[in-house]
Amino acid sequence: MLMAHPVVLDDLLDRYETLCLLNSEDPEVRRRLEDVSYTLCVATGTSDVDAAVIAARLRLPGARPQDDSVAA
Fold first, then answer.
1. CA distances from 8 to 4, 13, 43, 57 (A)
2. 43 is in which domain, residue-wise?
3. Whole-number Å distance between alpha carbons of 44 and 55
């Protein structure tokens, strides 16, 4: 499986978290959130955005697999 570069994953996580914080009913924001969620899933080889976020965080530099704080 191809692995996304950590810089790409970091950017996707930042965009995802920002769009989640907006919690907007604006159709454009919702579409962008759906797009970045899908891209995170593809980039991490997962089918669920929550699993994608965890997988992306674990692939970032400095992540420790035994440290479950990245899953919170």
1. 6, 9, 9, 12
2. 6-61
3. 6
The three-class DSSP label of residue 62 is coil
Do 26 and 35 touch, CB atoms closer than 8 A? no
Structure tokens, 25: 């009913």
- Domain membership of residue 71 (yes or no) is no
Report pTM.
0.81
Dig out the tokens for 14 from the structure. 């930042």
Domain count, the chain: 1
Assess if residue 11 is contained within a domain. Answer: yes
User: What are the tens digits of pLDDT across the range 20-71?
Assistant: 999 888 999 999 999 999 999 999 999 999 999 999 999 888 766 555 555 4
- Is residue 66 a part of any domain in this protein? no
Count of CA atoms in the C-beta half-sphere (13 A) of 7: 0
Residue 69 in any domain: the answer is: no
